[in-house]
TrEMBL record:
One of its GO terms (biological process) is response to stress. Residues 246-383 form the AAA+ ATPase domain. One of its GO terms (molecular function) is ATP binding. Its cofactor is Mg(2+). This is AAA+ ATPase domain-containing protein. Residues 456-466 have a biased composition (Basic and acidic residues). It comes from Manihot esculenta.
Length: 483
């Protein structure tokens, strides 16, 4: 800083500039006569460089394309800036395609936006220029449009490091989160109407409302599952470092109606991953399975429901039309597992595979061996805690109700699935009536179970053990699953 004594007066400054300008003119006219053109031009540009007034601002130009590829920073900035529209913005573009959930908002040419990051002021400008006809880049598909689009990001030079190492990565991360939020999830199922051999994935929008908040499950288990999923998606570098494919396997087991399919949907909604619902009954050969698995996308969940019903694979027979015989079907559990562990998981990123079963005890040991399914999640009968979540979801009861203690005692003594409780709670809008209905249902079930136990105690013992009454519901049930 200058002290007032050292500060040059405006008149002295003016005379200094005037003498520099006069010397420059003099130098120029002498140089024109004495110095040959190329050297003269270098001298002049050096002179200009030293005497040009310096700007304290730095401008980053972010073009739409980087060579022949799209510039990710441009795309991310476009997405990010939509969330920064201020009352001063004068023109915006909006659009919506049938596949999109929300309106897309974009800046119009020349619009400016001011953003603040960690106390730094950042000025953005959206620039569109006509691209020249003989532009060498016109072979580029993004440049063949008549206009060249870019963002200019202007800030004080002293923040260069911070902007490049922190603000730009922040924009990339933020735009990914925004895109995930807007993404319409898909559920892919096998197209069974195709003739055999032409089987392929078919997708529709996944509109399943299940979330971890609405799922009635043990809070500890819920927390563990969410943490596991989040750790998995964060750990790309870790998987690379330890030489493992970036995949995670979950086994969901429990009686029908305890929320296994709902948990799959909640996981997909949480991670914004598509679901591939693989019904093995429709696949006859390992080769078809490979083709289908290789056609699945990254950031997806592959679900094989009721794996205990599907693994009698080697017994399935495929009619041979030509010879009117039956062929052994060439689809085996080990083929499936080896492929999932091997090629499939290593040719994509962020793969999750989920098996569900009502009968964990019937599963092939190959599925249960350590390292195959990373987490075994037990979905069980409705606990009192799970009931309170359902009461909050279905009846908006978020605090105490006089029937709660009674319901708690009954739930401790009766096996009832969350699906059955949910169905009962839906029967009436009036919370008191719905809860009374539930109490009646629980009492009825308790009575039936007591009755069964009495009958059971009268059964003769076999090998010193009393056989359990078989209460397994049909496994070939029609399912609504995710739709
Ligand atoms: N834990 C739960 N939390 C909230 N709702 C549940 C839960 N379990 C079941 N439901 C309700 O019951 C319906 C059926 O549940 P879901 O299909 O998820 O059960 P499932 O365990 O997959 O059964 P299955 O073994 O027959 O496939 C769901 O649509 C949901 O409304
Ligand atoms: Mg299910």
């Amino acid at each position: 800083m200058f002290s007032s004594k050292e500060m040059p007066s405006p008149s002295s400054l003016f005379s200094a500039y005037a003498s520099i300008a006069t010397s420059f003119m003099l130098f120029r006219s002498m140089a024109n006569e004495l110095i040959p053109y190329p050297i003269r031009s270098h001298l002049f540009s050096a002179f200009r460089f030293f005497f040009k007034p310096r700007s304290s601002l730095l401008t980053l130009v972010i073009d739409e394309s980087a060579g022949i590829a799209r510039n990710q920073v441009f795309d991310a900035s476009e997405t990010y800036l939509c969330t920064k529209v201020s009352p001063n913005t004068e023109r915006l573009k909006i659009s919506k395609t049938p596949r999109e959930k929300n309106l897309t908002i974009k800046l119009e040419k020349g619009e400016k936006i001011v953003d603040f990051y960690d106390g730094i002021e950042l000025k953005w400008r959206f620039v569109c220029t006509e691209s020249q006809k003989n532009d060498p880049n016109t072979h580029n598909p993004f440049m063949s449009r008549a206009e060249k689009r870019s963002f200019e990001l202007i800030f004080h030079k002293k923040h260069k490091e911070k902007v490049l190492s922190s603000y730009v990565p922040y924009i990339l991360e933020k735009s990914r989160a925004i895109k995930d939020e807007q993404r319409v999830l898909k559920i892919h199922t096998l197209n069974a109407s195709q003739s055999y051999g032409g089987i392929k994935w078919e997708s529709i929008n996944l509109d399943h409302p299940a979330t971890f908040e609405t799922l009635a499950m043990d809070p500890e288990v819920r927390k563990a599952v969410i943490e596991d999923l989040e750790r998995f998606v964060r750990r790309k570098d870790f998987y690379k470092r330890v030489g493992r494919a970036w995949k995670r396997g979950y086994l969901l087991y429990g009686p029908p109606g305890t929320g296994k399919s709902s948990l799959v949907a909640a996981m997909a909604n949480h991670l914004k991953f598509d679901i591939y619902d693989l019904q093995l009954v429709n696949i006859m050969r390992d080769s078809d399975l490979r083709k289908l698995l290789l056609a699945t996308g990254n950031r997806s969940i592959l679900v094989i429901e009721d794996i205990d019903c599907s693994v009698d694979l080697p017994d399935r027979r495929l009619p041979d039309v030509r010879n009117n015989k039956q062929h052994d079907v060439q689809l085996t559990l080990s083929g499936l597992l080896n492929f999932i562990d091997g090629l499939w998981s290593s040719c994509g990123d962020e793969r999750i595979i989920i098996f569900t079963t009502n009968h964990k005890e019937r599963l092939d040991p190959a599925l249960l061996r350590p390292g195959r399914m990373d987490m075994h999640i037990h979905m069980s009968f409705c606990s009192f805690h799970a009931f309170k979540i359902l009461a909050s979801n279905y009846l908006a009861i978020n605090s105490y109700h006089q029937l709660f203690p009674h319901i708690e005692t009954l739930l401790n003594n009766v096996d009832i699935t969350p699906a059955q409780v949910a169905e009962e709670l839906m029967k009436n809008d009036d919370a008191d009536i719905a809860l009374e209905g539930l109490v009646k249902l629980l009492k009825r079930k308790k009575f039936q179970e007591d009755d069964l136990n009495i009958q059971d105690s009268k059964r003769p013992k076999i090998d010193g053990r009393r056989r359990n009454p078989v209460r397994t519901p049909s496994r070939r049930k029609a399912k609504r699953r995710y739709l």
